[in-house]
DNA sequence: AATGAATGAGTCTTCATTCAT
DNA sequence: AATGAATGAAGACTCATTCAT
């Protein structure tokens, strides 16, 4: 998924370790050992430990943004598009659970610059999602007594929390959880 | 809120700092400086930095568990009791936003023993909440096509996420957010 | 053996702990806990941790010096007096194995003043022993081609080493070991 | 003697300091200062302060074991081989007096694992020495009324004690002391 | 006689990063 | 492209001792 060159192996190793033990608890030494390279090699490709984290963020954000754009641009009726978007974000979150965990635990640990950049991208994503809800509210198919951004935060809280409880070994597939979550969101928005 | 003896001052300082910068990024030196005591004094009262964290957790957990018990034991109809419980947990989470933030960022950084204890308490809390939902499903006032524990995780995700976006300086009061969140939850559960 | 007042209990606890883990590895906290008193109480009776160590030394030294004087003053022939002295010192060393261990491991850790005093006492003891050997050499009953002080160091090395291997649970009694050691010493001195 | 690279300098400095002041009383800071390197450099080569100690032990043990094997494998009559072994161990102990001092004071301060390993090696050494004595007892050239292992402990006590009194500046050379000690041991074993 | 809170200097160790090769 | 030795600042924690009560 990340490629098997040295940078790819480093990214994979870092992702797994950051998700398991957190950014601060993971030493550069551990990362390079897991990737089977030396410290020098890592600093050849990445400027710093922070760099590794930024790179991981970037990848997930780009991925999710692309998916959302694709769904939102569809011709389907709003509720259907929202349902699809909600389902997709749950499924892709579960498929990249490590990245999501890192995301939540470690944004604060990025340098101010990088943190800002990541947040901006995140905000754009949320805004795209919110515009979908507002469209439905204006069309009268969604209840309008709840501010759209509250609904967005409500829903993305649930999504971010997936990493805290979802286990691949559990009895629900990613898709099933996605259907439930989308169903709850749509249910909550019924007029 | 925590008392003004040395232990109380340490707990307050630690809470604020852990919430701001995360557990790992906060040094014992910073904590004692903020509390105006010496390192030795801290280690006189708390066995370790972990101890401080556990103590903070314990307080919040006890507080929220008590509140939930009180509401759940009421005579009101289930939807009303669930609405109250949801409202309460949002309000109390916002009122103790620092503790909540710490909770989410740092449970993983406790020693295995302590982490287990905290999780167990947390689970009991969720189970109490879930039993309220199941009661409503059996009574036919809540839709039964969504597993109750999925609903619990869905809702608590939203609650935990509050720390990520809610600002005291924003335009919504804790109570208003609580009403919205409770409304969305109840809406999602309508048959 | 040391009395059961607070000072006695402290001395006993300290002796056991120092022998087990060494002076530096034993904290004042552990000593007072083992003695069932508080730190303040300890500092009421002893000026410092070093003080405790000096006190322990003093006791053993006095004990062994007294025994030696008693044996040496006897009317028996020299070889018999030396045999008795050697036997006695082995038996009493084994009976106070903890003190002996402490002695060897920790003399260097006393303050210069105290270390000097302890060494001086030790030297007097060795000199008394040496004079017994010299007496036998002059009388022609001990070989004279080995300097007496070399013999003393040779023998006391063996004695000090007892703490490193002797176990109460082993198959030899203190007295049996004493007989063997005295026998080896006398054997080595045969003309 | 240890080489003059960074690890060698560290080992030399540590040996001298441990012998002078004891393991616990010597700080890592002092060692690196004496070796003229930084703390980080030390931890690059040695995993811990204990590691340094283990390394020092290892060297002496290997040295002495080799010497003993060489002498024991000789064709000479047993008493002569024992005399040579005794002489050698005294001379080599005096030549590495620092290491020996450390040995005695600090084995107890190693981690259980390492302590076990060092003791095991030590035991093998003693057993080789003991087999020499037993050989002589079976051949009837040594008295058989003293258990061989008691004799070994008796003699090695004397040897270990050398560090407590031998001074290079004294009037006896290492070789002279060795002759005396070997003479006393052989004398003690005469039938 | 005894307490126990508080001190503050000191301990070992970790770690991201640099740099000559 | 890659190594690995070396740095130096910072980390959590320990402990003998003091002192007001």
UniProtKB/TrEMBL annotation, chains A, B, C, D:
SUPFAM superfamilies for the chain: Homeodomain-like (SSF46689), Tetracyclin repressor-like, C-terminal domain (SSF48498)
DNA-binding region: 27-46
A Pfam entry, by short name: TetR_C_24
Superkingdom of this protein's organism: Bacteria
This protein's UniProt keywords: DNA-binding, Repressor, Transcription, Transcription regulation
InterPro entries, A to Z: DNA-bd_HTH_TetR-type_CS, Homeodomain-like_sf, HTH-type_TetR-like_transc_reg, HTH_TetR, KstR2_TetR_C, Tet_transcr_reg_TetR-rel_C_sf
Molecular function GO labels: DNA-binding transcription factor activity; transcription cis-regulatory region binding
Stretches assigned to the HTH tetR-type domain: 4-64
Name listed for the protein in its UniProt record: TetR/AcrR family transcriptional regulator
Lineage start: Bacteria, Bacillati, Actinomycetota, Actinomycetes, Pseudonocardiales
């Amino acid at each position: 998924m990340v490629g098997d060159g040295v940078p790819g192996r480093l990214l994979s190793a870092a992702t797994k370790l950051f998700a398991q033990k957190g950014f601060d608890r993971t030493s550069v030494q551990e990362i390079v050992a897991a990737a089977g390279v030396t410290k020098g090699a890592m600093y050849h490709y990445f400027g710093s430990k922070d760099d590794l984290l930024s790179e991981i963020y970037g990848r997930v954000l780009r991925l999710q943004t692309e998916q959302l754009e694709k769904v939102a641009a569809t011709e389907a009726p709003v509720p259907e598009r929202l349902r699809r978007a909600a389902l997709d974000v749950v499924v892709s979150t579960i498929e990249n659970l490590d990245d999501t965990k890192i995301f939540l635990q470690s944004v604060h640990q990025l340098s101010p610059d990088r943190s800002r950049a990541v947040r901006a991208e995140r905000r754009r994503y949320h805004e795209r999602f919110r515009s979908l809800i507002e469209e439905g509210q204006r069309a009268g198919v969604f209840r309008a007594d709840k501010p759209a951004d509250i609904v967005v935060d409500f829903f993305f809280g649930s999504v971010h929390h997936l990493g805290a409880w979802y286990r691949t070994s559990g009895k629900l597939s990613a898709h099933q959880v996605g259907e439930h979550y989308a169903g709850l969101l749509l249910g909550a928005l019924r007029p």
